[in-house]
Specification:
9 strands, 21 helices, elongated, two-stranded antiparallel sheet, alpha/beta
Length: about 450
């Protein structure tokens, strides 16, 4: 039995995600704030140029189509495939259309961040003159990916990833709607729909495509079975039971996914969001959250060498001398990554992640280097004082290099107070390092106080 009640060829050849596109702004799911702004913009005499910024499957293309409506000619273009020649051809067609029909043109430039500066410059005069209304779509932060002059002429509309509950609603609608699969609700189990919504990670297109693949599997007889078969009465008055209807369940979903990995962009916005979340979770001493974000990255295909490089940086930037072993553990994990490779190195990375999260925190080394760098920029290349200059030649000795140098090992405890600063700073030696007194830094602070007295008495505990 065919599950599609309407076997119309055109509908079968059109992807489900395309068939289920919202027909009005009111039908756009999960973007109430953006829709409110767009309603106000479409009420104007002329639509301004826009940058639609959001993750995959949040509705950027759909919104651009709806904005064009009957008012503008919709000219779709992909920055991956198109170039300057295509833009110029679109501009000429837009001019002709405006002169001949009085109709404006909305140029939808998908993945606008793929255009380089020179290509984006070509758009600028035509957006400024009104020949084109630009609707650029991007998954990347437009502050970094769209040139300033073009960005200043566009309204940025921020779209968010859909919530799981919103995607569930879309899936049930697509399952039963005549535009969609036109199946009975019993053709899918609640748990399978929830799993698709969770795996989609906010991407409605992925969710609908997955549902369509599942429907194809059960339509070909490879699905599970509905637990309650249809019953009826035959012509002789006997009770008959139809064969169980196939159903979309977890087993069907596993076959449909066929090992697909998590949504994760290794070079884009999601990449930087995930590494930032990992870093801040460890800084906040939350090992569970740290493990979650690290797993998100690694299972999404991130190079473990990149992850361990970031954790090595963290060991010095956020822990430092509060626990000097943190850096040792980080380097050891780096060796494990290089020696074992992926996935055998995953537990070593997990061990490092937990160690860093649980270690005492200090950014003293990070701020100390920043202060020293600022001091160098402020005063330039000040000469070293004569007493701590090396004097390998007689000429240097004659010039008083190394004169009056106090060799620390000749003094009790291996310490002697002396001047180690350029003469211009020696009168009031600057402070660049401020230890926190946490972890091992407490011992170091006590030692410095014994050596230098009150110089370190103002350090925080």
């Amino acid at each position: 039995m065919a599950l599609f009640r309407d076997p119309d060829a055109e509908r079968r050849l059109t992807p489900l995600a395309e068939r289920m596109r919202p027909r009005t702004l009111s039908e756009v799911e999960g973007q109430p704030e953006a829709v409110e702004v767009l309603r106000e913009l479409t009420s104007r005499a002329r639509l301004p140029s826009l940058i639609l910024w959001g993750p995959p499957g949040c509705g950027k293309t759909t919104i651009a189509r709806l904005l064009a409506s009957d008012k503008y000619y919709f000219e779709p273009m992909s920055a991956v495939l198109a170039g300057v020649k295509d833009v110029r051809a679109a501009v000429e067609a837009a001019k002709l259309r405006r002169e001949r029909d009085g109709q404006g043109t909305l140029l939808f430039l998908d993945e606008i961040h793929r255009f380089n500066k020179a290509q984006q410059d070509v758009l600028l005069p035509h957006v400024e003159s009104g020949t084109l209304v630009l609707a650029g779509a991007t998954t990347e932060n437009p502050s970094f990916e769209v040139i300033g002059p073009l960005l200043s002429r566009c309204r940025v509309i921020v779209l968010r990833a859909l919530e799981a509950a919103e995607i569930e609603a879309l899936l049930w609608r697509a399952l039963t709607d005549e535009r969609g699969l036109a199946l009975p609700r019993a053709a899918a189990e609640d748990e399978a729909i929830k799993q698709i919504a969770q795996l989609a990670a906010g991407d409605a297109r992925f969710a609908l495509n997955t549902l369509e693949v599942c429907a194809g599997l059960i339509d070909s007889g490879r699905g599970g079975s509905v637990t309650r078969p249809a019953e009826g009465i035959d012509d002789d008055g006997g009770r008959v039971t139809d064969p169980p209807l196939p159903v979309i369940n977890s087993d069907v979903l596993k076959r449909a996914l066929a090992g697909r990995s998590l949504l994760y962009d290794k070079t884009g916005e999601e990449h930087y969001n995930a590494i930032s979340a990992l870093h801040k979770s460890l800084r906040g001493s939350d090992p569970d959250a740290g493990l979650y974000w690290m797993a998100r990255m690694l299972e999404g295909g991130e190079d473990p060498k990149y992850v361990v490089r970031r954790l090595i940086r963290f060991a010095s930037e956020d822990i430092g001398l509060a626990d000097p072993w943190a850096l040792v553990h980080a380097i050891a994990a780096k060796d494990a990554v290089e020696f074992n490779g992926w996935p055998e190195c995953n537990v070593a990375l997990a061990q490092l992640c937990v160690y860093l999260a649980c270690a005492p925190k200090s950014n003293a080394m990070y701020t100390a280097y920043g202060a020293a760098k600022a001091l160098v920029k402020q005063h330039g290349a000040l000469p070293a004082p004569l007493n701590i200059r090396n004097a390998p030649t007689q000429l240097m000795k004659d010039l008083n290099y190394g004169q009056d140098y106090k060799y620390a090992h000749n003094f009790e405890g291996g310490f002697v107070a002396d001047n180690y600063w350029p003469d211009a700073l020696a009168a009031q030696p600057p402070r660049v390092m401020h230890l926190t007194g946490r972890g091992t830094e407490k011992q170091l602070l006590e030692r410095l106080r014994r050596w230098w007295g009150g110089k370190y008495e103002d350090e925080s505990q």
